[in-house]
Amino acid sequence: MKIRFKILLALFILFGSATLIPSTVSAQQSNVSFQVFYDQLSPYGQWSSTPDYGYIWIPDVGPEFSPYSTNGSWVMTDYGWTWVSDYSWGWAPFHYGRWDFDNNFGWFWVPDYEWGPSWVTWRRGDGYYGWSPMRPGISVSMSFGNEYADVNRWNFVRDRDFGRTNISRYYVNRRDNDVIIRKSSVINNTFNDNKRNVTYIAGPRRDDVQKYTRRSINNVSVRDNPNPGQKLTNNQLEIYRPQFDRNNDVKQRPAPSRVSDVKDIVPAGRRNANFKQNNVQVQQPKQQQSLPAETKRQDQVQVQQKQQIESKKQDQIQVQQKQQQQQQEQKQAVQQNVQVKQQATTTVKSRRLERQQNRANNQDKKGRNKENSTETSGKH
Edge-to-edge, what's the strand order for the sheet holding 128-133? Predict the structure, then answer.
């Protein structure tokens, strides 16, 4: 009886443990290769190849796009500040690999094996928080150096505005980046992920952000999504983040189904918010079929927001021009008043001098008359 009880108890424990930790098992899957990137991202951009990086991905976005800046926001998780992208493809390029910029075709992404909350460098100083995408080949330790590459890669907001869901409305003009950077220092706060054996750059500390923003920063839990994609609801981020087996890439040699020549890629300056390059259409799971429409809707929102911004700029320009015109008119009025006063003063002085001259002439005339009358009386 005791033996049967022990056997049943062992089976119960074994069965219970198997049902309680399915997410841990799925999180440790290691049979994934770069082919998942090549297939899943093809509908949203073009794959090309360069001597320095091998396969690179150029997203179908307008010239205003910037990684960790456009269409997204920061949330605090156990791993540090995590970028939650509004792009349907954002689960991959903002959490794996690195971004770099080409003067011809703009931003491009280079795949890598390690998942992270984000791959950016952080700075703070003079009342601002800032971040910049880490370039390919830059490690966490290298990112803590004093070199900050191109100042135009940085996004800065006032520290009191950091953590807002509409963070893009609070970006500081990049013309001020150089001054801000020189007055700031690198944030070297890190988090060690023992399960994945990876060190992440966690970004600003929660206590510091709460102090500067005077807002409570809620923690968002991260859960594994079994399918490519991401979803943020009720302070929970479900995101696809498989662990890659480097040996699979050696054995299978994955590659994009179509690789475009770099010379055939449309330059970033000729794109717009609704831009779509010609590319191979990869068959997607049913749950992914609605994603292009979602992306189109987001792009339309971007266009509307850009038009609103341009309208506000035009209104501001008109107000400034009107103010300048009023200031010019006031200045002219003041100058006219000064001229009138000067003319009046000159007239008064002229009349005074004229009266003085007349009095002097009269006195001379009287003196001469008196002298004449004296001479006449003397003769008689």
Answer: 155-158, 128-133, 120-125, 185-186
Report the predicted TM-score, pTM, of the whole model to 2 decimal places. Answer: 0.66
Q: How confident is the model at residue 303 (pLDDT cuts 50, 70, 90)?
A: low
Q: Give dist(CA 73, CA 96) in Å, integer.
A: 17
Q: What percent of the chain has pLDDT over 70?
A: 73
Residue 377: partners with Cβ closer than 8 Å, 6 or more residues away: none
Residue 72 pLDDT level (bands cut at 50, 70, 90): very high
Q: Rounded CA gap, 151 and 159, in Å?
A: 19
Q: With 0-12 CB in 10 A as exposed, 13-18 as middle and 19+ as buried, what is 45?
A: buried
State how far the Cα of 187 lies from the Cα of 9, in Å rounded to an integer. Answer: 51
Structure tokens at 54: 């091998």
Q: Is residue 58 within 8 Å of 285, Cβ to Cβ?
A: no
Q: Is the CB of residue 139 less than 8 Å from the CB of residue 116?
A: no
Tokens of 102: 């080409």
Task: Tell me the Ramachandran region of residue 366: left when phi exceeds 0, alpha when psi lies from -120 to 50, beta otherwise.
Answer: alpha
Token couple for 40? 């899943």
CB atoms inside a 10 Å sphere around CB 42: 20
In sequence order, the 6+-apart residues with CB closer than 8 A to the CB of 276 are: 60
How far apart CA 134 and CA 114 sit, in angstroms, is 14
For the chain, give the longest Cα–Cα distance.
178
Q: What angle do CA 159, 165, 169 make, to 5 degrees?
A: 70
pLDDT tens by residue, 11-53: 544 444 433 333 333 444 557 899 999 999 999 999 999 999 9
- Output the CA–CA distances (angstroms, integers) from residue 207 to 210, 213, 215, 273, 370, in the order listed: 5, 10, 10, 38, 105
State the DSSP code for 14: H
- pLDDT at residue 376 is higher than 90: no
Domain boundaries, the chain: 28-306
Check if the beta carbon of residue 66 is closer than 8 Å to that of residue 155: yes
Indicate whether 294 pLDDT > 70: no
Q: Quick one: residue 61, left, alpha or beta (phi over 0 = left, psi -120 to 50 = alpha)?
A: beta
